[in-house]
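Here is one chain, start to finish.
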Amino acid sequence: MKIYTTGEVSRICQVSMSTVNKWFDTGQLKGFRVPGSRHRRIPQTVLLQFLHKYGFPSSDFEFAELPKVFIVSPDVELGEWLASELAQAQLNIRLVRSSFDAGIEAEAFRPDCVIVDFAIGADEALRICQHARSKSDLDDPVLIAVLSSEVSRGEELALVDDVFETPFDPELLKERLRTLVSSRMNPV
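Its structure:
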């Protein structure tokens, strides 16, 4: 999770730093002080809540800061369902239908997580996963495989972080995705 300085918050809210400091000091904007100093810091989730609560325009800020999930699924129904479910979890979603589109879009989107529907074909799906793992500019995204119950789990799935068999509970996927992306973005 990103942590913001009062200067960054003032630019986002388009107010003076003294206004941000007042919000912080009166408890309107929660955060913490850097130990041993007077500097204030505001966690991203707290800032988003503050922006919503007080009606600040935040769509561009939110969209840019949300974890990015890239879904590759040739199955229109499954892809749309996944995108809809994950969008409810405040994730920036991009859905593509083919490995060709995935290759083009992934470089620009720079996802934090790639969900690959193996209905695209095992060989194609594995190539997408291998590409995501090998491209240094993709920042080692979390890889999640979606399999139908007919597909066998082989050794080739060792390079993915998790596997979900259809049908599955979307809440379980959301929770697992949050955990994996959070651990990848904030290593201990």
